[in-house]
Amino acid sequence: MAYAHALDALGDPTRRAVWEILRKGPRAVGEIAASLPVSRPAVSQHLRVLRDAGLVRERREGTRHIYAVSPEGLAEVRSYLEGFWATSLDEFKAYAERGGQ
Fold this sequence. Notes:
Helices cover 65% and strands 14% of the residues. The protein is built from 5 helices and 3 strands. The protein has a 3-stranded antiparallel beta sheet. A hairpin with a 2-residue loop joins strand 2 (56-61) and strand 3. The model has no long low-confidence stretch (mean pLDDT 91).
């Protein structure tokens, strides 16, 4: 249930803001921190949670840590959420076939 860990991680508004920044492309910690009203150490902690949840990847370029969205982590969340859509469509189809009753 990796999707549960990912959803928990995105439950925090600051982590969602960090993740939204990374959706625009890979960024270093300092670049992310410059866009938010939190300290660089706080951004690093939020990135660690997102990384542990499988939502972001980290790579090093010299002394810099570059973060990017992880397509695999997002795929698990998407698959989980699409399950709700499929269930809703099945229920709607059954309702329509019963004539709206």
